[in-house]
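Comment thread on ticket #2218

A.B. wrote:
> Attaching the input chain for the structure job we discussed in standup.
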Amino acid sequence: MSLSLSMRVPLRVLIAEDSEDDARLLLRELQRAGYEPTFERVDTPAAMTSALERHAWDLVIGDYSMPAFSGPAALALLRARDLDTPFIFVSGTIGEDVAVEAMKAGAQDFLTKGNLRRLIPAVQRELRDTEVRRERRRAQTALLERARLAELTSEVGSALTRGEGLRETLQLCAEALVRHLDVALARIWILHEATGILELQASAGMYTQVDGPHNKIGLIAQQRRPHLTNQVVGDPQVLDQEWAEREGMVAFAGYPLVVQERVLGIMAMFARHALSEFVPKALASVASALAVGIERKRTEEALRSSEERLRQAQKMEAVGRLAGGVAHDFNNLLTVITSYSVLLLEDLGADDPKRDDVDQIRKAAEGAAALTRQLLAFSRQQVLQPKALDLKATVAGTDKLLKRLIGEDIRLTTVLAPDLGVVKADPGQIEQIIMNLAVNARDAMPTGGRLTIEAANVDMDAAYVRGHGPASPGRYVMLAISDTGIGMDEPTKARIFEPFFTTKEAGKGTGLGLATVYGIVKQSGGFIWVYSEPNHGTSFKVYLPRVDEPAEPTAPTATAEPARGTETVLVVEDAASVRMVTRQVLERYGYAVLEAPNGDTALRLAAKHHGPIHLLLTDVVMPGLSGRQLAEQLVRLRPDMKVLYASGYADQAIVHHGILESGIAYIQKPFTPEGLARRVRQVLDSAPAA
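C.D. wrote:
> Ran it. Output below, let me know if you need it in another format.
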């Protein structure tokens, strides 16, 4: 019984038949059964192949034998592309053995042209069975796909919980994407928090280098939503269409890696086949796991880095305390050696043959004094006398000396911001930083090059400093000294600020130059970064806090002979040799000298002395009463007496965090006779404290 026209069932039928009449008979039977067939008749392999490529068919009916084709060949072409579409043989005469072979090859039924009454029941049955088969196959495919994606998720999770570094972990994840999804290329980028630049961290598949052929990732990060397509060619968001077409790319998937509204990176991949309907959900899960894993790895690496910095700081602190203690004792000895050398030179005639010997002793003592200053700088125990500085003037003041220091084969360039801010620092120590870094740069350019000194204002916010360990948010002045020299590898960079570490040959350096810079910068409240790569030069960037004060004028350097005096000076020093030479120097300059080895003796001596004591010159660190405690007690007895402290390092009695207290007069050991006389005269001539 046929159906009405409005109830007819559409049916796409491909007929492999050389007889048009036989094909019409088949169509008539289908129409009588209520179908509305759309058909194509083919009788060659080429026509069959073309029809299968152009359309999807609900049913294929084939004659078993044709002049230029055959039913089994048509069945083979169909099954090579489609396992489910039903194939029914309709032939003139056929033996039972041929029918069995056809069924084994994948045909659903075999009819004779003389018995077409069986055609419609066979078609109806096979259309129902085909839908069942397809549903079963879809379920099996879905099960296999889910299992495959579960393996992917599991492998990514396993990689993220391993102990490797972030880059190694992400590389394992990219390789898992290629392996489980059969994609041609998978890559993972990390967003650099400070610069906002996506940096490629992992690449697997057809490319393993870090520069990709497309720019898709930036838009995904900006829009914070995934982009998937199974039609890469023609997709306006895939910029390199020529590359995609040349490589046969079909699908693209890109996902932002987001944690708490923050984009951490991008996961992206290209495939030469369409991605299944199950892939988006799995990739969303992988992207979420990656984002959490990246955040955790970053936290772990930041913690490890912090612990390493703490260990390094503790090591530097321990070495610094040792160096400071040695420098303190050494400075007392050098005060004696230097002072007696100068006194001897004053006593010897200009033509005395012993002058050269004594002068060599003096020069050696000066060299040793410079070494102890470096030790104190590294250990942050030198006494700083900070001023509000204009770094433009400081850099300009070192220009001539720097040019002589670095030689003619190195070009010196300065780039100083016109609106450069003011810093609070010790002028001499800033010059020391510039000189030490310039010497380091010179030694890194044995065949010449370029040395660049830059200074600029820098503002650092919380987001920026998260990726830069030693920094803290604030307003800074940056002093950068860069060279075009041989550069450094990572192991060398990790040790450059350690005292006595040097890459120079024996006898070419003390290993204290950069350690000194580190100590000065830290004691000045700043921090230092170094950027370097082998054969690509080095850049040291010093950051000092910016202050809202006008720059102080630079004090002129004293050149005249120190004035003499007749005042009474009480010298208190526990080191007998230092006390003795100090007395001799002061007496040569006309002063009356009282001396005491400690605070208690000094108090008794001052009580017995009936005349005025114009100046107390005292060591800071002594057994019993410290120099500060002694001064406080004596000033109560003699309010007009002035005080000058002498020390080899920064003691907390007169300084706080290495900064000399306001109104404190101080002289650094080791001092020369001329330096001592000049400082004593300055203090005596200074206005009384308010």
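A.B. wrote:
> Thanks. Noting for the ticket: The two ends are 124 Å apart (CA to CA).
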